[in-house]
Hints:
The protein is of the alpha+beta class. The protein contains 2 helices and 5 strands, in the order E-E-H-E-E-H-E. Mean pLDDT is 73; it is low at 1-12.
Amino acid sequence: MGVNRDVGRAAAGGEPSTIRVEIGELVLDGFRVDPDRVSAAFEHELTRLVREHGVPMASDGALTVDALSGLPPLPAGLSARRLGQELARAVHEGLSGRGEATP
């Protein structure tokens, strides 16, 4: 998993104009949901969270993490949309320093 901030700065405010999060694999064991719908909800929610809150751990530049651990367990009965949202929130919390990141 990697987070990269665009080296080009936005004209006003000096904030990066692009933040790119690359996730190699998202494994779902024990869930009976459409993986495409989970992925779409995950991407939508993670994009929203990064836009609204940024990624504090990557404030100094690129961040690469092999795995996030210590993520909360999720009930197997969640809908695809809700599962994607909860996974995105857990990943964002991990990338914000509230989970265990394994470099």
